[in-house]
Amino acid sequence: MAIYQGDDKYIGDLTIEHNLQGLENFVISPRILILIKPLSVLGKVNPNSNLFGILNPSSKILVIGPRSEDDLLCLIGHGFEIENIRGLDLISYSPWVDIGDMHSMPYEDDSWDAIILGWVLNYSNNPKQVADEVIRVAKPGCLVAIGVEYNPLTDEQITEIYGYAPGGSRSNSVDEILAYFGDSVDQVYYQHDIKSVVGDDKNSELAVIFSISKKNSQKNEQAQTELLNNEAEDNTDYEEYCLKLLNITFNLENIDKYDVSEAEKSLRKKTYFQEIFSEVVKDWAVNEKIPLLVEREQFLNIIDVFNRGYEHFIKNSQTPPQSYQAMRLLYFLTDGAFNNFWMSLYSLFYLPYDLNTAKEFLMPSSQSQAESIAKEIQEQGYYVFEDKVSSEICDRLLDFAYSMPCNINIHNPSQPEYAIYQKEQPKAPTYHIDETKLIENPIIQDFISDRFLLEVAQSYCGSCVTNRNTSMWWSTSILNGEASSRDAQLYHWDGDPIKFLNFFIYLTDVDTNNGPHCFVKGSHLTKPISLLRDGRFLDEEIEQYYEQDKIIEITGSRGTIIAADTRGFHKGKALKSGHRLIFQVTMATCLFGAPYNSIELNIKTVKPSFLEAYKNFPYTYQRWQILH
After folding, report:
1. Which SS3 state, helix, strand or coil, does residue 511 take?
2. Which pLDDT tens digit goes with each residue over 588-619?
3. What are the residues whose beta carbons fall under 8 Å from the beta carbon of 102, sequence distance 6 or more?
4. Structure pTM?
5. pLDDT per residue over 100-120, tens digit each?
6. Coil, strand or helix: which one is 88?
7. Quick check: 483 and 489 in contact, CB under 8 A?
8. 3-state SS record for 252-307
């Protein structure tokens, strides 16, 4: 069995697996006869042709996606000669079936008299590209026969029935199929549009047979010339875009040469960034060739909403809601490419702090070790520290958490409800301690100003970082293992800021039954196209696209420290028994994004070490105001 190993960017995610499974459960399907029978009797449409209509036994016929040899054998049974028949598929055990992708076929122009696509178009994420390839390899007048399953079910419904959905596209009318071929459709000989026969709630077949016109070849050549000219102009634009980026680095080098203080240099860089970011981001959106899930014009509109929102953020320190949503859209529409570009730009202007004056609390600090940990997070998406928080500190924070009133209605900010956590009689799935009360705790102040955590966060983000959130909450087993979506117990990805790193500390022992943090290894880097959306994901969806060894469940004794880029898929596993207390710190590149809390602290509650960090690293603690 040979399996296609080339570029699969347009191929449905599970196409090969689905068809291999189809071979294992092999049956001969009569479905292909819906296309072959009309092809073999087209003489009824064209009386001047021979017995086989427009085709004859020596006609060269290409069958795309036969999976097995049965489609080819059916053609032989209808009078066509095997030496003139070829199959093309992503899998092949047959000398009659070539290995290749229908989006980029291994055949010369004008090669085939007839091309059959039997129920394969829906495996493509780009049917228009398939149509363009068919037109290219078709002879003038070539007959194209296409069959497609009409299926109104969603991928979720298909998965519920069959256990998975192969992915790809849907074509639910003959007109939709013909539209892919545009002006190249000459004469339609046969069509069967199921919507004219049964209701929209039925599953059945669509079929169409038409000839290809190449009369507009001269126009096509002219269009190709115009395209090449446009590409030349695009190349010029791209060169100008690259020169702009290069010019930015030169200007930054010049700022570094100024005989002014480091604070003044930093201020000039930030001012320069504010002047140029909008134009640079728009140039990136226009010039970078990245796969998109929307039309380019719509993508540029989303970029404009983001840019306007960031300009507002610079002036007011608040993100407009529509710009926050634009940022989330840009993340999954580009599979993270936008965030990566933004950080490559942002990190040129907002350089990491020198942390030599920061205090050590959790563990001895080493810049090289921090860089090594950051590299592993970059590859895996998470890191579990070897060192743990001491039992003494865990005990003190447990006592604190048992005594503090917690918000048990965290999902309705307008109507908070407070209760002290009692593990024998929990009232809600989660109990959250207010952030202001947390920050007043001297141990928490040590956590959020710890030198090693700051070094790891800066190394990972490539810039100075700011504390975006500090939180602590109890998770309970009140739902007896049933996942609460609102309490993040279903898989999801975080997109509150553009780039960030979360640190989690287990303050109770955590096993598989009481809420381990679960993470999908590598999913912070890229995601399957079918999972590029906002919202929650069932375990079955994640397991459909990721091998079991990629789905990590992090258990550990109390004091366990985890760092994770939670742009990757993750969840807190629903508790079947017991409880869990966890502490979280989010360090981000900036505060742009979801709403955040501003914190006021009385100087009397602030430790000297935290006050020193607050003064030395103002960007990191910009949410705070210490009142004297």
Report:
1. coil
2. 999 999 999 999 999 999 999 999 999 999 99
3. 64, 65, 88, 117, 120, 124, 130, 133, 134
4. 0.65
5. 999 999 999 999 999 999 988
6. strand
7. yes
8. HHHHHHCCCCHHHHHHHHHHHHHHHHHHHHHHHHHHCCCCCCCCHHHHHHHHHHHH
